[in-house]
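pinned: reference chain
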Amino acid sequence: FRIAGDALSVHAIAALPLSITGGEESEFFVAGAGGLGIRYTLAKHLGLRLEALVSYAGEERGLTIPAFAGAEAFF
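pinned: its structure tokens
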């Protein structure tokens, strides 16, 4: 969800990351995550994005803080 801005905007992010491991001890779990992202629109069809989330998967798996950076093309 965009909180503020147009060319330089701030977004709130909510996610449900899924984890699937293979092999003999295969397991599947879902974590809850939330965070903020910043998008800078360079041109009409090109933008840069930086995001950071806080993800919690229970006492057994704990807390992670994944961060992402990249470019995106709008069609």
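why pinned: Residues 31 and 71 are 26 Å apart (CA to CA). The chain is about 0% helix and 70% strand.
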